[in-house]
């Protein structure tokens, strides 16, 4: 597992990791270094950049701080352009229209009409995708950027879904929680395997901490 001060990517926490079920705390001091278990303390901007690199590496559209073991209210996301030609694979980074680093985000519903036709997945539940997750069609997000400036962005449809998905993570919620219980039951075997991997990873972290403290 990487442990250098400037890692390329962070390990993504899997379903079953307790931090993914805890409500994240607000970031009060943007100048204070953050410590992700297994890594040296780093500035907020550096953590955010590495989170974006982790998201791109995993071919994701968003990544919340708890998904890398950091229980604070921050997420990163990207808005991508659609592929120009069907069947043509373009590099993910070349399709980025906007990047977001949202600190202490707050969502306001602009359109209460629910949309459920998009397929939704999660980097902490790899390989599982489901339709039917009801999300508000349009939201307004107020947040702080890395400079501490208050920003407001309005989003519709898929980007609105991304924002809602990531804020769910900050409240300890998975997209599967928004579906009937039988959907989770259908994936019980795969989820159990993820839980075992999550437990093994936490054990490894504990062993490393013990060795470092010896």
UniProtKB/TrEMBL annotation:
Known role: Removes the formyl group from the N-terminal Met of newly synthesized proteins. Requires at least a dipeptide for an efficient rate of reaction. N-terminal L-methionine is a prerequisite for activity but the enzyme has broad specificity at other positions.
Enzyme Commission code(s) on record: 3.5.1.88
GO molecular function terms noted in the UniProt entry: metal ion binding; peptide deformylase activity
Catalytic activity: N-terminal N-formyl-L-methionyl-[peptide] + H2O = N-terminal L-methionyl-[peptide] + formate
Family recorded in the similarity comment: Belongs to the polypeptide deformylase family.
Gene Ontology terms describing biological process: translation
Cofactor(s) needed for function: Fe(2+)
Protein name: Peptide deformylase
Residues binding Fe cation: 122, 165, 169
Keyword presence, Disulfide bond: no
Cofactor binding annotation: Binds 1 Fe(2+) ion.
Positions annotated as active site in the UniProt record: 166
One Pfam family here: Pep_deformylase
Organism field: Deinococcus maricopensis (strain DSM 21211 / LMG 22137 / NRRL B-23946 / LB-34)
InterPro entries (UniProt xref): Peptide_deformylase, Peptide_deformylase_sf
Keywords, sorted A to Z: Hydrolase, Iron, Metal-binding, Protein biosynthesis
Presence of the UniProt keyword Secreted in the record: no
Enzymatic class: hydrolase
